[in-house]
Write a structure and sequence with these properties.
Blueprint lengths: L7 H42 L6 E6 L2 E6 H40 L4
Antiparallel strand pairs: 1-2
Length: 113
């Protein structure tokens, strides 16, 4: 017994469905990465909280280490934290929209529309 033939429109919908699923996976991986960065930033800020303001510390930039002070390091980390929060919010909204679109397309492909 052979599989039923899909119309060109159904093939297009199926291809779009697969693309949306891939986009959703990429968004979810990016969200996981941002959550890891958030956790690391929170840990670093917690460590800096207990340090004396005159303490010299080092921050990395690629393979290099730069000397900085506690206040500058806090400021950088807080800025990074804010940027990450904006990215998480944006990706979360995009994820919600994609999930809704995937659901609609899935219903259409299953013949529920």
């Amino acid at each position: 017994m052979s599989a039923p033939q899909l119309s060109p429109e159904q093939q297009e919908d199926l291809q779009r469905f697969n693309q949306l699923i891939q986009q959703l996976e990429v968004i979810r991986m990016n969200l996981q990465q941002l959550e890891l960065e958030k956790r690391d930033t929170e840990i670093a800020l917690k460590e800096l909280k207990d340090m004396d303001a005159s303490t010299l510390i080092y921050r990395s930039a690629g393979r290099l280490l730069f000397q900085t002070n506690v206040e500058d390091a806090k400021k950088r980390l807080e800025e990074q934290q804010e940027k990450n929060e904006v990215k998480v919010s944006s990706l979360t909204n995009r994820e919600k929209k994609l999930v809704a679109t995937v659901k609609e397309l899935q219903d259409k492909l299953m013949g529920k529309q």
